[in-house]
User: Fold this.
Amino acid sequence: MNMTIQDFLKKKQEKLAQKTKSKKKDFREKCEDILEQIKTYNEEKHNELLKTFKDRYDKVNIQKKKILGFYGQLVNELKALREQAGESLLQTPVVKRAQSKIKDVKKQKENIEKKVDKVVKSTKRKVTDAVKKVEKAADEAVAKKTATKKTAAKKKVTKKKAAATSSTEKKTAAKKKVTKKKTVAKKTTAKKATAKKKVAKKTVAKKTVAKKTPAKKTVAKKTVAKKKVTKKASK
Assistant:
């Protein structure tokens, strides 16, 4: 089937019309969407703009330039409302209370940080003091132990000296005993020698007396003989 030029042009126009209609419809939908967003910020403004949209722009044959211009207007309106909402929101009691709470939280945070710093510093000082005490106690313990060892060593030396002195004294006493014994032995020997001498002298004396005794006997005999002679002469 052959298509005439008129049919071709007609179809092309219909496609263009549909395409344009579709674009216009898309912009109308976009405008409706922005109007809904505006409603959340300001309902009165939304109603006013919606009425304008329905009266002037919500049409099938609306020019693209016009719908685009209105769409741009709605975008700017929404932006302004958002900015106003942001400023007004900051002035609301809820936001003010929130800001006050934020300030309080910040102050509390600063106070907590200060307290933490103080606690940390105090703990650090306490730990340092504790470490110093432990080190001092350890030094004292070491010094005490060293002093005890030195004292024990001195005692050992003193004991050894005492033992040596005692040993020397014992040796001296033993020597004295030996000397004494020797002296006693000498004296005993001397006594014995003296006694022997005395005995020898007595023996000699006895012998001398014994020798003298016969002489006495002789003298006595002579005396007796004289007496006899005398007697005879007197007769």
Observations:
- The chain has three domains: 5-91, 103-154, 198-235.
- DSSP finds four helices and no strands in the chain.
- The chain has a mean pLDDT of 75.
